[in-house]
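Q: Given only this backbone (176 positions), what sequence would you predict?
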């Protein structure tokens, strides 16, 4: 009986500690690997992580010309066309005007601009509850869509796409 009185609290304490230990196994991840379009030579990776209803995105793009380049989510996860047009238009499931990220009116796929340095490298990060990886809500689910990088900057006002110029990179967003 003494052993049980000693071991029972120890067992309960151990169970409590191990059951409360969190892990990153609960996170859902996705990636879009950028393919060069229009003979641009760009490369890159966009990583997505969803935890607790929030998606974090980090884009790391290489071999850009120096300056600003628009980055958007497009409606179709198809990068087969040499000019990237197989990805369709901007992802805009709520049918609102194009605009700047988290302004009063913007497509859910309006991410913003990458600022490439003289080395041709650029990064951008976003965090939002407007996207999801694991849900089935067509107004939020980014899986199966494409990321498009444009030759020029998004002006955030021209409709429907921000007058950002040719598509120079494309990658389908797919679960890991």
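A: Predicted residues:
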């Amino acid at each position: 009986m003494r052993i049980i009185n000693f071991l029972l609290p120890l067992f309960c304490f151990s169970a409590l500690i191990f059951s409360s230990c969190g892990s990153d196994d609960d996170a859902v991840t996705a990636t879009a690997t950028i393919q060069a379009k229009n003979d641009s030579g760009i490369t890159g990776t966009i990583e997505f992580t969803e935890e607790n209803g929030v998606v974090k995105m980090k884009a790391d793009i290489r071999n850009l010309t120096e300056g600003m380049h628009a980055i958007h989510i497009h409606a179709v996860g198809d990068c087969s066309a040499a000019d990237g047009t197989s990805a369709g238009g901007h992802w805009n499931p709520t049918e609102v005007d194009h605009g700047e990220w988290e302004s009063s009116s913007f497509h859910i796929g309006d991410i913003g601009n990458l600022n490439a340095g003289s080395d041709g490298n650029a990064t951008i990060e976003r965090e939002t509850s407007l996207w999801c990886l694991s849900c089935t809500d067509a107004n939020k689910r980014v899986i199966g869509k494409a990321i498009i990088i444009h030759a020029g900057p998004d002006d955030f006002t021209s409709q429907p796409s921000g007058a950002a110029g040719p598509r120079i990179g494309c990658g389908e967003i797919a679960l890991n």
